[in-house]
Amino acid sequence: MAEALPSRIGGYDIRRLLGTGTMGDVYHGVVVNAQTKVQEFYAVKVLNTKVAKRLEWCVRFRSEVKDPHLLEYKEIEFDSKYQYYFVADYLEVKAASRAAFRRERSKEILDSFAKVAGALDKAHKKKYIHGNIKTSNLLVRRAEGNVAQAILSDWGLTYVYDKEYFSGERFQSTFPYMSPERIQELVGGVDPKASKLTAAADTYSLTCVLIETLTGQRPFSGCAGLDDLDKAKREQKYLLLNLNFPVRHINIQKLNEIIRKGLQYEAGARFGSAAELAQALEGCKVESKKA
């Protein structure tokens, strides 16, 4: 956690701490537009240099992949005191959860996840793998018309594994969402440049977030360590018999088939692309019958 609130990071006056996580701290930053003299508000994320780093292709991602469901960095800079910081528009958001989708029925939640999967596919086609999708970086905001819009953040960042740091709640908030192959690369210290991860790593993680959003229960929680987690990922199966909100517009059997395929231990047994996952999510909606 931040030891003290910084007064300024780069060209941004800092007003308050918005949140803190494994990757670093996020602050509410303010600048005054030189032309209009109006205050503009931003989210400024400062990396925790002990466990996170900036990938060289993060700047490229910023210019090459555009989608309303992917958080865009307005600025990626280095401050001699605060290291790398990432700047995005300040949005009123909540981490993905049933509460964040409080106004939406199950069908509309699947719509949101299908759109995020479509955005993922766009990034994957540019050879970008996220590798760290979890509930805390799938952000939900209220867009025009009070409609929920899911936005995936933290593109271009990766962890530096630290056994002591990733313990307890940090372990529980990070590793259960990761695909088995992502965990193996992370623990093995594989350089991101040499990573062999495919889109299947991201569809695995997005499936985990979907389960938690629909049920309120984090998949693979309670595992004591990596060996226990690996065993659970190999053997544990998820079957949604019912959900705690209306499901009459959802084919629950097809939804369970999506979850089963999305959480296959072997990457090759999962969806071939995020576009396939998006299509599958669309396919398990049941159209309302007209009277």
Structure, described:
- This protein has 291 residues and is α+β, with helices and mostly antiparallel strands.
- The chain has 2 domains: 8-89, Phosphorylase Kinase, domain 1; 93-283, Transferase(Phosphotransferase), domain 1 (Orthogonal Bundle).
- The protein is built from 8 helices and 11 strands.
- The protein has helices spanning 58-64, 106-125, 168-172, 180-188, 199-215, 226-235, 252-262, 274-283, and strands spanning 8-9, 12-20, 24-32, 39-47, 52-54, 73-79, 83-89, 93-95, 138-142, 148-152, 157-159.
- The chain has a 6-stranded antiparallel beta sheet. A 3-stranded antiparallel beta sheet has the order 8-9-10. A two-stranded antiparallel sheet has the order 5-11.
- A hairpin with a 2-residue loop joins strand 1 and strand 2.
- Helix 2 packs antiparallel against helix 5 (199-215) and helix 2 (106-125) runs antiparallel to helix 8 (274-283).
- The longest helix is centred in the middle third of the chain and has 20 residues, at 106-125.
- The model has no long low-confidence stretch (mean pLDDT 87).
In short:
The protein has 291 residues and is α+β, with helices and mostly antiparallel strands. It has eight helices and eleven strands.
The description of the largest β-sheet is: 6 strands, antiparallel
CATH architecture of the largest domain: Orthogonal Bundle
How much beta, percentage-wise?
Answer: 15-25%
Mean pLDDT across the residues is: 87
User: What structural category do the secondary elements indicate?
Assistant: alpha+beta
CATH class of the largest domain: Mainly Alpha
